[in-house]
What we know:
The protein is of the alpha/beta class. It is built from three helices and three strands. The chain has helices spanning 10-21, 36-42, 53-62, and strands at residues 2-5, 27-30, 49-51. Strand 1 (2-5), helix 1 and strand 2 form a beta-alpha-beta unit.
Amino acid sequence: MIVVTGGAGFIGSALIHGLNEKGIKDIWVVDQVDHPEKQKNLNPLIFDRLIGIDDFLKDVLEKK
């Protein structure tokens, strides 16, 4: 699994696109999708999970 923080932004979505081109789809996108442009960046991409920052941190701290 690869975690991409800020994955819904311009640079993060470009990174996910590059990973998808290499056949990598086991990706968690960590970001707040509170802007329509960010959601638009994610539409063509393949990933396992979109998770908010607070929920991601909660998951990580619980497994510690």
